[in-house]
Amino acid sequence: MLNRRQLLQGIGAGTLFGGISGRLAAQVATPDVLVIGAGGAGLAAAKNLMSAGVSALVLEARDRIGGRAFTDGGLGVPWDRGCSWLHSPNVNPWVDYAQRNDFDLVPDQFARHFYDGSRRMSGAETAGLRAVTERMDREMEDAARRGLDIPAAAAFTQTLADPWYPMAEVGVTDWEGIEPSNFSTLDSFQYVEDGDDLMIPRGYGTLVAHYAKDIEVRLGTPVSRIRWNARGVTAETPAGAVRARVAIIALPSAVIADGAVTFLPNLPVEVLQAHHDLPLGLLDKIALKFKRNVFPSERTEFLQLRRDDGRSINFMTRHWGSNVCVGFAGGRFAHELEGVGEAAAIEHALAELTTMLGGDIRKHFDRGAATAWALDPYARGAYSHCLPGRYGARAILARPVGDRLVFAGEHVEQPAYGT
Questions:
Q1: Whole-angstrom distance, CA of residue 81 vs CA of residue 284
Q2: Backbone φ and ψ of 149, nearest 5°
């Protein structure tokens, strides 16, 4: 079995060529392996295969590498449009790479504050939120330990009526990218948290770009079809066909499920179904730049307005000491913001921040930017979740198909999906 963690740990080549065909590594071909997609998983696959003496070529549809890891410097400070946190740092190989290459890593120990209108709530007032969040975690864990592959919301036997539940639900939705009624408790339980999350001041996308500097990547080369048989694989692109012995498909699950890349012969039914069973949730960001510090502190904090409608934005202020804040919105609310367009999403975020901090901040507003990952044809969302009743889909995708196709990415990594 080949998955992203094995690739990152440098054992992917041996697994691939031992599990698929013992003859491939010894035979000369250029390239031995096609890697479709230059996100973190695809780049890690290519680098580790090359380190093992296996030739690899990466085909990337975008005009940049990184996939959903993309650092934007357009507001004068690096901010990540996509992934931001290094989760489970005790076992996350990106942490070791960052440290060996002089990337500063900052523990996410920032204070979290909640507002009732313009009034900052005290810790005592928000104790109910902490209590209901902990209770939700216990209820989901209890259901999973009993083997219940049910919607997370169905596990909340003592929670739904709690006055703090709407805010706690926002937190869970942002984490999974989808509301608790739509993801599997059993699948979520398999995620392994090991250590406090870290953030990268220079940007996650910058880290991935640094990692890719020695990898051959053909940008602007979308693959529309992959033909595969006992002799090898052929990827059809606008620039022509590219052949290899094996293909690693490091594309988001939604891209395959939506038919943006087709296969001839068709994928086995269970493999295609597994892609449908692992749809992408959504977490979008809205970055706001001000002409001066309009925030309550010189230090970075998270600020969030208490709302009961699931439409609350979580703002990270003083982004790396700057006058930029980055707001996070997930699930249905994020889809709603994408639907109204970037300008309206920026205005909505500015209005919410104004509710908390006062109307004076508007005159100091400079400009903003908003992401739209669901509308991005090469992403079609943020990160995967498993539909209730479909636990086991990730394991299906972790197995090679026909000795020629290997799927890689966060959706394949059961203990570290979404990372």
A1: 8
A2: -90, 70
Under-70 pLDDT residues of the chain: 1-30
What distance, in Å, lies between the first and last C-alpha atoms of the chain?
19
Give 244's strand partners.
233
Question: Which structure tokens are listed for 404?
Answer: 């020629």
Q: Which residue has the tokens 């053909």?
A: 218
Contact predicate 138/174, CB 8 Å: no
322's CB contacts (< 8 A; 6+ apart) are 75, 76, 77, 289
Check: CB of residue 292 under 8 Å from CB of residue 135: no
pLDDT given for residue 204 in this prediction: 98
The residue whose two tokens read 């977490």 is 283
Q: What is the pLDDT of residue 160?
A: 87
For residues 202 and 211, the answer to whether their CB atoms sit within 8 Å is: no
Q: Is 163 exposed, middle or buried (0-12, 13-18, 19+ CB in 10 A)?
A: exposed
Residue 415's alpha-carbon distances to 119, 207, 412, in angstroms, are: 39, 22, 9
What pLDDT does residue 13 have? 39
Nearest-CA neighbor of 305 among 166, 131, 181, 197?
Answer: 166
For residue range 289-324, list pLDDT tens digits in order.
Answer: 999 999 999 999 999 999 999 999 999 999 999 999
Which residues fall within 8 angstroms of residue 76, CB to CB, at 6 or more apart? 289, 322, 324
What pLDDT, on the 0 to 100 scale, is given for residue 30?
64
Give which of 4, 78, 74 is closest to 44, Cα–Cα.
4
pLDDT tens digit sequence for 385-416 = 999 999 999 999 999 999 999 999 999 999 99
